[in-house]
Design goal:
Pathway: Cofactor biosynthesis; ubiquinone biosynthesis. By secondary structure, the protein is of the alpha+beta class. The protein is 34% helix and 33% strand. The strands form three sheets. Strands 5, 6, 12, 13, 14, 15, 16, 17 and 20 form a nine-stranded mixed beta sheet that branches.
């Protein structure tokens, strides 16, 4: 006996889970989505995600299909160029710099950047009254019993749910993945990433900047103005001890170190939010499916924060799952096999590429740094290679 009957239960109401719920409901499925945590009201709220996401063109198309993009677009900043800089030493000395432009692929922008806490709050607001969506914050997945025709799920609040398909969108420590007995391969780098937002003197001109140096990449991504000042989101990767040292600095000392790290391309910088820290890993689930269960987003894969691949890869999972279950019993072996076929190869290839790229970016070896600098110049200066790399970074959504 169940308390609730639904077509699809989604464990995890982060950005990926909410986008998935919106898309599946738009496709006509009854969706129950649950999460122990509630969306933050602002950037300073406890647990707010201070990272940002550059939603690339393919991801925007998925959100337009789910009828949620109009709610997000006013809070997003277009990315009209990508500047990549390589450097060595401290203070960093620039060894190469190149600009990548969307016009090379016939696009006006590479994507649209938005703070993650803001995106989650807006999506939760939209889905609160969305037809076909039963949105439950404050409760999460506790256990499952999979049968031939359905999965019986118990939530942490005690509610029992009968669903035809369960989707784990519940993060890198996914309770759904654990309940299914699916292991994951994990590569650790001894790095930590610091995420925060800043205001700065010079305009960003809608240009995202990735700066490579020993310890890892530092990325500044344009945001809408903050209290009348130019603003950007920052993810700064370092070897673990260095990241901990930086996070413990007084604000003015931290801001001075940051300006040095990005080689003053935005002028003086001031913290606009707190600093969040998390370990950098590559993690890939051994399987994407179990009996009447599918894994998406960070339950399926985690990548270092380079090249806007993380959440955009997750949105590719969402689109593929929606396509795989269309016109089928959503938890059938055929539907789940179709989803796995659509995503396993891309996830494996993308995670390997980002893993290698991060190892090269963070290397302290001078020969590796020299190769990195030469590679950056070639990636821009050889036109067919530049276009191929840009198409790959966009997920193959442009010709």
């Amino acid at each position: 006996m169940s308390d609730v009957d639904t077509d699809i239960l989604i464990s995890g109401a982060g950005i990926a889970g909410l986008i998935l719920a919106a898309l599946l409901a738009r496709d006509g499925w009854r969706v129950l989505i649950c999460d122990p945590s509630r969306p933050p009201e602002d950037a300073d709220a406890q647990g707010s995600d201070l990272r940002s996401t550059a939603y690339l063109v393919g991801s925007r198309a998925v959100m337009e299909r789910a009828a949620i993009w109009d709610a997000l677009e006013p809070h997003a900043m277009p990315l009209d160029a990508l500047r990549v800089m390589d450097s060595t030493g401290w203070p960093p000395r620039q060894t190469a710099a190149r600009m990548f432009l969307p016009g090379d692929l016939g696009l006006e922008s590479f994507g649209w950047n938005m703070a993650n806490w803001r995106a989650r709050a807006e999506l939760a607001r939209v889905l609160a009254d969305a037809p076909g969506v039963d949105l439950r914050f404050g409760t999460g997945f506790a256990s499952r019993l999979a049968r031939d025709d359905a999965v019986l799920v118990r939530l942490t609040c005690g509610t029992r749910v009968r669903a035809r398909l369960v989707v784990g969108a519940d993060g890198r420590a996914s309770p759904v993945r654990t309940a299914c007995g699916i292991d994951a391969r994990i590569a650790r780098y001894g790095q930590k990433a610091l995420a925060f937002s800043v205001t700065h003197l010079l305009p960003h001109e809608k240009v995202s900047t990735e700066s490579y140096s020993a310890g890892g990449a530092c990325v500044t991504v344009p945001l809408p103005d903050h209290e009348g000042q130019h603003a950007s989101a920052v993810v700064w990767m370092n070897d673990g001890p260095r990241a901990e040292h930086l996070a413990a600095l007084p604000a003015d000392a931290f801001e001075a170190e940051l300006a040095e790290r990005v080689m003053h391309v935005l002028g003086p910088m001031r913290l606009a939010t707190q600093i969040r820290s998390w370990p950098v890993v590559t993690q890939v689930a051994h399987r994407l499916t179990a009996r009447r269960t599918a894994l998406v987003a960070e339950a399926a894969h985690v990548m270092p924060p380079i090249g806007a691949q993380g959440l955009n890869t997750s949105i590719a999972d969402i689109a593929a799952l929606s396509d795989a279950i269309s016109g089928r019993d959503p938890g059938s072996p055929e539907a789940l096999a179709a989803y796995a076929r659509a995503r396993q190869g891309d996830i494996a290839a993308r995670s390997r590429a980002i893993d290698l790229f991060n190892r090269v970016c963070r290397s302290h070896s001078r020969p590796v740094q020299a190769v990195r600098s030469v590679g950056l110049k070639a990636a821009n200066d050889i036109v067919p290679l530049r276009r191929a790399l840009m198409r790959a970074g966009l997920g193959g959504h442009v010709g």
